[in-house]
Amino acid sequence: MIDTIAFDGDDTLWHNESLFSMTQDRFRAVLAHAADPADIDRRLLETERANLGVYGYGIKGFVLSMIETAVELTEGRIAGRDIQHLIDFGKAMLEHPVDLLDGVEEALAAFAGRRLLLITKGDLFDQESKIARSGLAERFTAVEIVSEKDRATYARILARHGVEPGRFLMVGNSVRSDILPVLEAGGRAVHVPYHITWAHEQAEPPADGYRRIASLHELPALVRSLEDS
Q1: pLDDT tens readout for residues 119-165
Q2: pTM for this structure?
Q3: Where are the domains of the chain?
Q4: Helix or strand or coil: residue 68?
């Protein structure tokens, strides 16, 4: 039996990366006079990766990385009003409604009798706000907001909740964060791809050891088949 099922939040339960993609389009427009779109994207990604150890994941770090990239690309000549635009972009992201993905409500209802965890990474304030606004908090036995998803993180969570790795199933959209480290920790994993994946989260999927579904509508049947086998 699988007695504990954990779900990722961003781009598994609710839309997230599409909001970042839309904001990055607006960022390119602000800097169109300073560099070509491909160079803007490359420099922003480099800055984001360099800043992860300082800001962590989330909208606030993204905005600060946009400002830093803009200053560098314009050699310090970016106008104050353009910096204000970038700040306003971030505020709009933080205030954006939480839109659930298709099949979320039905999947969670199907597992109402089981221990359900929400394991999501990012800025504590932002993630807490999204969870509250999603209306899903009551569906979970516990919520874990972490700064990184790696083998050690999952091992700590499993130990804290007294979960045997072989009876644990993680459901998420990121191969890098939701699949590979869970398999390394001895758990099971289901990949539910989102139509946009941040470059930093892209990784080669393992040859085997996990399952992939198109949407959460397919999850209840998949769990039944895993337990039957």
Answers
A1: 999 999 999 999 999 999 999 999 999 999 999 999 999 999 999 99
A2: 0.93
A3: 4-14+99-228, 17-95
A4: helix
